[in-house]
Design goal:
alpha+beta, 256 residues, DNA-binding, disordered N terminus, homodimer, 4 helices, 7-stranded mixed β-sheet
DNA sequence: GATCATAGTCGTCTCTCTGACGATAAGCAC
DNA sequence: GTGCTTATCGTCAGAGAGACGACTATGATC
């Protein structure tokens, strides 16, 4: 392909590389964690980075994100705008576009525009390294963000910024949607859902008020009929996500 | 530039064109309006489209959006994440990234990924046609969206979809931020701000409850000291935007 | 089996905020 | 002045949230 740049010729254009990067979040051991892969090649060889890759010439952006997600984790994720064809309570991760990053020097090799996607997934087995990554892990986001970062080595490229944006999106979106259920298994208890909120927001919530709120919000939870004692204590009712897209009034994050 | 495609060679990549498209919204005559330009060249010659253009090789995405905005409207817009350097109440439009659109066939000429930006501006003079556009106008969004579209001709490319996403973003964002003030002049009255909400949401709000809400929310409005009678009736206090980024509790959109 | 620890669930009280609406204030047109 | 407009203040009932007491039903431990 021959490429030329002329101000007024609309058939000419400067070429860009387009990639997708994934902010894959899950809740494990009461902490919000992000999926990282270790880069096996320069630039940033040996650094931890968000999973991602080039968009192919014949695929859409969400399609590329979904493909990369499957390659890295084996997760099947319907894209966000289309409703989950499997209906309420179906397993599988939530995927939505986050933002696009295109600083001219964000990749030293060439001009790269990266479309970031946010994935919210239930707890998964330890990831396998895939493709061009020499390792993969779940990292608590508290160790990756902020000035009190435990791991002194930053992420590759601008992935620290992308991760921060993704975490902020997740934190605000579970306020006014039922998206927190995407962090849970198909069936879950009110207490498990509460622990998701507590992990994502980093707060403690009153179990009684939380129970009243989520069970009193129409469309948020559907009773599945069963009970479980897997958390110990008194048996708890099992629910599936009611699929309500928008909660009104929203869940309130304490002291924000 | 020679381009090749190889699965595992990270220095090779399929080339994309990257553009920015602008959803410029304003409120005029009690209606939410979007800026459209008429395309002077194929494809979609003669169709109305969102303003926009190619990103240059050496500029960032927000920079390109800001440049296109200035070229089309003369507006100077600071990008959203950085706070307005001119301080609270400064004129100038609000600009933020909206979403990125990259369906493989969205442009018949080539593979184009478009990063859409949302601009909220106070009422502006009738726009001039600029660059490759043969005309420009403000169109009420009610005439452009939905099945009851008055103008039977759709917008070029996927710009109808982009516009719908931008309008939805604006409608939801003024709920929990002070962004509605971006539609007003530097100094404005409570009534003028209420008419912004009414136009964007397409509802009527109770003037007394609205007044109590906005004047009672800390950081939303700053009294500027003056008064005006430009809306008729009793003189109204003038305010500037207090710059509060997030309103808690939010403004409530009726019956949503 | 009795006791304890754990987690779930229901209720109550108070306070804040909202929606509905009455009442008053202060300009302009005539 | 009267009438019309818009702005602003007040009042009241109801919904919802935060704080917290009380009770329930399981497994663990003695």
């Amino acid at each position: 392909m021959i490429v030329a740049m002329s101000r007024y010729d609309p058939s000419a254009f400067p070429p860009f590389a387009v990639t997708v990067d994934l902010v894959v979040l899950t809740v494990r051991e009461h902490a919000l964690c992000a999926l990282l892969v270790r880069r096996g090649e320069p630039p940033y060889q040996g650094y931890w980075a968000l999973p991602g890759g080039f968009v192919r010439p014949d695929e859409g952006l969400a399609e590329a994100a979904s493909r990369e997600l499957a390659e890295e984790t084996g997760l099947r994720a319907p894209s966000a705008p289309g409703h989950d064809a499997a209906g309420p309570g179906a397993a599988g991760a939530h995927l939505e576009q986050l933002a696009t990053y295109g600083h001219p020097q964000r990749d030293p090799r060439m001009r790269v525009v990266s479309v970031a996607y946010l994935v919210l997934a239930p707890d998964l087995p330890t990831p396998r390294a895939g493709g061009d990554a020499s390792g993969a892990r779940w990292a608590p986001v508290t160790e990756l963000l902020g000035p009190d970062r435990a791991d002194g080595v930053p992420l590759a490229f601008d992935h620290g910024l992308i991760l921060a944006d993704g975490v902020e999106r997740a934190r605000s979106k579970i306020e006014y949607s039922s998206l927190a259920t995407a962090f849970c298994a198909t069936e879950f208890t009110v207490g498990e859902l509460r622990r998701v909120y507590e992990a994502v927001w980093g707060v403690v919530l009153d179990p009684r008020n939380f129970h009243r709120k989520v069970t009193g919000t129409p469309g948020f939870l559907l009773p599945s009929g069963g009970t479980t004692t897997r958390q110990g204590g008194r048996p708890a009712q099992l629910f599936t996500s009611g699929g309500a897209n928008v909660l009104n009034p929203p869940m309130l994050r304490p002291e924000s």
